[in-house]
Amino acid sequence: MTEFVSEVKTILHSNADIYRVLSDMGKLNLVKDQIQSDKIEEFTFNRDSCSFRVNPIGEVKFDVVERQPNKLVKFKSENLPFDVFLWIQLVSKGEKDTKMRLIVRADLNSFLKPMISRPMKEALDKIADVLTQLPYDSI
Questions:
Q1: Mind listing the pLDDT tens digit for each residue in 2-15?
Q2: Which helix (H) or strand (E) holds 2?
C-alpha cells in the first residue's frame, strides 16, 4: 500500500461538531454550493457515502466503513481500478481548535504509482483545504 498524508490542518470548530458533520456525509448537502474548487466538482452526499469528480482522476466514491466518535471517520473507495482507504483523523486541542489530518492508503501497482501519486496528493491536499473551510457549527 502506498500512503499519502495531508498537512495537519487547524479547524476553528470543536471536534464534536466536525465529527457530527463528517460522520454523516448527508449533512454536506446543506453547504454543497459553498464548496469552491477548481479540481473537485460534482459532489453528491448521503449519510454513508460521498462521491465527486476529481480532475484528472474522474469520479470517486467513498463509503464510510468505520466511525470513532469525535476522532475518526474511515472510508473505502468505489469506482477506482484499485483500493483506496481514506481516514479523517481529528484531535481536539481546545474548545474551538481541532487538528485534522487526512490519510490515504492506495493499493497501487508499480505501473500506476508514478502516474497517480502526484494527482492523489494534490487531491488529498485540496480536500483537506475544503474541509477546513466548512461552517461546522451551522450545519
A1: 999 999 999 999 99
A2: strand 2-5
Hey, is 22 helix, strand or coil?
helix
**Where does residue 58 fall: left (phi above 0), alpha (psi -120 to 50 degrees), or beta otherwise?**
left
Burial class of 114 by CB neighbour count within 10 A (0 to 12, 13 to 18, 19+): exposed
Tell me how far apart the alpha carbons of residues 33 and 70 are, in angstroms, rounded to a whole number: 25
Q: How far apart are CA 7 and CA 4, in angstroms?
A: 10
Task: Tell me phi and psi for residue 56, to 5 degrees.
Answer: -100, 15
β-bridge pairing 58-68 and 72-78? antiparallel
Q: Could you give the CA distance from residue 58 to residue 95 in angstroms, rounded to a whole number?
A: 38
- List, for residues 72-91, the tens digit of each pLDDT value: 999 999 878 788 899 999 99
- Cα distance between residue 136 and residue 70, in whole Å: 13
